[in-house]
């Protein structure tokens, strides 16, 4: 077992198999799923996923290199680790998805979509993650982490950012420390549930979870992986149990989602250019969208747009509006209640 990505891309090893090498036991869980367990014991279980969107290639290459270094013993492993390539069929095709976006389907929402390879895959991914974390239930005391790695399609004024799922319990401090070390430019805190992989693992599996958007997507093999050094180093520190690298850039900015702009009508109009970069700011009073019976104007002194997409299907989210909050508002992992 030494070539996680290539074997996945060739569609090989689709049946479970296992072995031992480099101070760890490996177990192939099925297409695009590899579990690594250190022979010397562990206190954390970490799931790293990439390729939930098949054309977001740089994180796929990062996970492949990480797997290679662990399997050859170049990097010691001190956590139980699950490596997941989310949508192998879409990765092979170089497409975001083939039928529907998997990252809207988690938490059982796949049953509301027309049956496709992606609804089947979303269900498989839920089961694989659930089984992975459940393996430690009897031993207890094992902390759970899940990082879902993406790259954005559009430009972003803050190029690297994380999205924390909505949760009522405090955010995990090691997770926050690792995101700081990963030199993210910004962290966005969701205020309501969603169908993402990280929301699923946070809500249903009690993992410390985050979705990461790590710059812009390029074709497989054409990425300049040096741009991903900081996240790579932070993940390597996490899985090998060493201290987090020191952040060398400006402090991470913190945002909270004010509202989702839902497209409820075919007459919906988004007054934000379809190619507007993420984190484009708008001043108070700016009309951002309108549809019959409803208009949304910027309510705070300044609000920022994230993932604007006027062409989504009716009933889906055409963008999110953010406010910036002081870093201290996430002190101790707890986000204070919104002021309004
Ligand atoms: Zn993505």
UniProtKB/TrEMBL annotation:
Which free-text remark accompanies the cofactor?
Binds 1 zinc ion per subunit.
* Keyword flag Transcription regulation: no
The enzyme's first-digit EC class, named in words, is: hydrolase
- Highest taxon of the source? Bacteria
E.C. no: 3.5.1.96
The GO terms describing molecular function are: hydrolase activity, acting on ester bonds; succinylglutamate desuccinylase activity; zinc ion binding
Its keywords, alphabetically, are:
Arginine metabolism, Hydrolase, Metal-binding, Zinc
Q: What is any one GO biological process for this UniProt entry? A: L-arginine catabolic process to L-glutamate
Where, by residue number, does Zn(2+) bind? 53, 56, 150
Protein name per UniProt? Succinylglutamate desuccinylase
State the species of origin. Answer: Musicola paradisiaca (strain Ech703) (Dickeya paradisiaca)
């Amino acid at each position: 077992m030494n070539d996680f990505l290539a074997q996945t891309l060739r569609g090989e090893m689709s049946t479970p198999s296992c072995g031992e090498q480099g101070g760890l036991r490996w177990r192939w869980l099925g297409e695009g799923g590899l579990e690594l367990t250190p022979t010397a014991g562990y206190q954390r279980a970490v799931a790293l996923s990439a390729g939930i969107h098949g054309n977001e290639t740089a994180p796929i290459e990062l996970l492949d290199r990480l797997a290679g270094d662990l399997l050859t013993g170049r990097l010691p492993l001190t956590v139980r680790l699950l490596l997941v390539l989310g949508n192998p069929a879409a990765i092979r095709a170089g497409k975001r998805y083939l039928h529907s976006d998997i990252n809207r389907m988690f938490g059982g929402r796949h049953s509301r979509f027309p049956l496709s390879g992606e609804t089947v895959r979303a269900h498989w991914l839920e089961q694989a993650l659930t089984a992975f974390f459940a393996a430690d239930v009897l031993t207890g005391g094992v902390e759970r982490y899940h990082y879902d790695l993406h790259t954005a399609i559009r430009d972003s004024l803050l190029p690297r950012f994380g999205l924390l799922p909505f949760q009522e319990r405090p955010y995990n401090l090691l997770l926050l420390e690792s995101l700081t070390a990963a030199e993210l430019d910004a962290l966005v805190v969701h205020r309501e549930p969603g169908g993402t992989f990280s929301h699923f693992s946070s809500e249903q599996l009690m993992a410390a979870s985050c979705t990461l958007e790590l710059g812009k997507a390029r074709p497989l093999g054409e990425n300049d992986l040096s741009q991903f050094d900081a996240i790579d180093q932070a993940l390597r520190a996490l899985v090998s149990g060493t201290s987090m690298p020191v952040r060398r850039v400006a402090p991470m900015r913190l945002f909270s989602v004010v509202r989702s702009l839902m497209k409820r009508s075919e007459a919906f109009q988004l007054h934000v250019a379809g190619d507007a970069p993420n984190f484009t700011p708008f001043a108070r009073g700016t009309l951002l969208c309108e549809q019959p019976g409803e208009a949304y104007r910027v309510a705070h002194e300044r609000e920022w747009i994230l993932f604007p997409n006027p062409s989504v299907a009716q009933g889906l989210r055409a963008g999110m509006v953010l406010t910036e909050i002081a870093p201290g508002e996430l002190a101790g992992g707890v986000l204070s209640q919104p002021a309004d």
